[in-house]
Amino acid sequence: MKIIVQEQEFDVGDEISGLAAGDPGVGGIASFVGLVRAENEGGTVAGMTLEHYPAMTRKALEDIVAQAAARWVLRDAVVIHRVGALKPGERIVLVAVASVHRGDAFAACEFIMDYLKTRAPFWKKEQTPAGERWVEARASDEEAARRWR
Amino acid sequence: MKIIVQEQEFDVGDEISGLAAGDPGVGGIASFVGLVRAENEGGTVAGMTLEHYPAMTRKALEDIVAQAAARWVLRDAVVIHRVGALKPGERIVLVAVASVHRGDAFAACEFIMDYLKTRAPFWKKEQTPAGERWVEARASDEEAARRWR
Amino acid sequence: MKVKLLYFAALRERFGTAEETLELPGEQSRVAALIDVLRGRGGPWTEFFATDYPYRVAVNQQLAGLVSPLSDGDEVAIFPPVTGG
Amino acid sequence: MKVKLLYFAALRERFGTAEETLELPGEQSRVAALIDVLRGRGGPWTEFFATDYPYRVAVNQQLAGLVSPLSDGDEVAIFPPVTGG
After folding, report:
1. Separation in Å, CA of C35 to nearest CA in chain B
2. Hey, CA dihedral for B128, B132, B134, B139, is it positive or negative?
3. Scanning B23, B81, C21, C30, which has its CA 20 to 30 A from the CA of B101?
């Protein structure tokens, strides 16, 4: 289990290869990579800054992964979330989950993303031609998280 | 869109990085990597051989990806499936889907895996201490595919 | 009419062949009629097609059913439920 | 009793501060009482807490609600709905 908040880029291939390496029972790894879009709500995005609540972030992510581990068979998981300045096309987040069967891997990975989106203390500020703006939370993210109750 | 059937290993990081590279509208990439388990149905697996129906395989995979593209917003997708001799821990399959939002990426990726598992002409033969045996189809895979109807 | 028959995986081993050409009566036929011919052959074919094993059929590389039509020159594959991924 | 207050993102900018210490009456309190104190302060606090903006509260780094208890020394963070991932 690996949970990291960092400014630097990460290597998706390395992270997925490292997950559950040598565990003979792992049958599949589901993952999600979130990217900075160059367009958002119709406007051009030149870049963004990700702020977080350092004392809480790790705890919140650990709690989300623990909830997933209580609901599905997880053999290993990694969550990496970047903070600081990011350019369009750069990776923001990686969630990867190794399990025995793919159903559990997919469900746990999507659950972690949905909860991260609504419960982990990160905030995005976008740079646009019209100036800076804080990204607003999407109602669809709340709905996605509610599905799992 | 990239669909490949090959004997060689592939690089997950390269494939995910290459997906939708430069597409400003992509917000996320969901992926699944299937691995050869060293244990199956309680027995030790020393390796497996993957047979396929070459004239049909590509068509079948293209058709599955086209069905996914008709149901969800896909910006790009890659399916790589290996054939031939594979050892425990080696990757068998990669499905990765780039989309605007994560919900579509997750759904399309899982749909492609579920359909691949039940409609693409691949067959696994496992080498075990008790000799070789053809892997039997799992009823749970049929159920998983039926969910999408 | 003639069809090209392919067998894969456990069925290839069971019938001891990967490929054959089969003559069917008439100019059009159906998968069901082909299966009847195979079932009537004796040996491993009769044995196999008397069971309720859920074999799959593809006609010209597309999954097909018992009522699917067959024409001269079609490629018909018979195989076990798939187990890739 | 005293609590440490933290503001993040748009709220940090709106209140012009990231952190402050606040004195609350009594030895125990609740998030609702803290919010009442802030709403009564005037300026951007009164303005903000009069709206129905769906701000979030964490007590000691755990998401909390208006009825959540507060003790001396607690760290209370107030911030906008999160937008990571």
Report:
1. 20
2. negative
3. B81
Q: Residue A144: what pLDDT?
A: 95
Q: Where are the alpha helices (DSSP H) in chain A?
A: 12-18, 54-71, 102-119, 139-146
pTM for the whole structure: 0.96
- Distance, CA of B51 to CA of D19 (rounded, Å): 64
Q: D8, A81: Cβ pair inside 8 Å?
A: no
D8, D77, D84: residue with CB nearest A120: D84
> In whole angstroms, how large is the CA radius of gyration of chain C?
12
The single residue listed with the structure tokens 């659950």 is: A111
State whether D85 and A135 contact (CB < 8 Å): no
Q: Where are the domains of chain C?
A: 2-79
CATH number of C2-79: 3.10.20.30
Q: Read off the pLDDT of residues B109-132 as tens digits, 9 standing for 90 and up.
A: 999 999 999 999 999 999 999 999
Rounded CA-CA distance B15/A134 in Å is 32
Q: H/E element holding D12?
A: helix D9-15
Token pair for residue C61?
């590389």
Please tell me the distance from the alpha carbon of residue D77 to that of residue D58, in angstroms, as a whole number. Answer: 5
Q: Are strands A122-128 and D62-64 parallel, antiparallel or unpaired?
A: unpaired
A·B CB contacts under 8 A? 99
Helix, strand, or coil (residue A91): strand
D-chain residues near A55 (CB < 8 A)? 61, 75
Collect all residues of chain A within an 8 Å Cβ-Cβ radius of residue D62: 56, 59
Among C6, C5, C37, C43, CA closest to C24 = C37
Global ipTM: 0.95
A5 Cα to chain D: minimum distance (Å): 12
**In this structure, what DSSP letter does residue B46 have?**
-
Q: Do C83 and B123 touch (CB under 8 A)?
A: yes
**Nearest chain B residue (CA) to A25:** B37
Dihedral angle sign, alpha carbons of residues D7, D10, D15, D17: positive
Taken in order of first residue, the domains within chain A and their CATH numbers are: 2-136 (3.90.1170.40)
Answer yes or no: are the C-beta atoms of D7 and D17 closer than 8 Å: yes
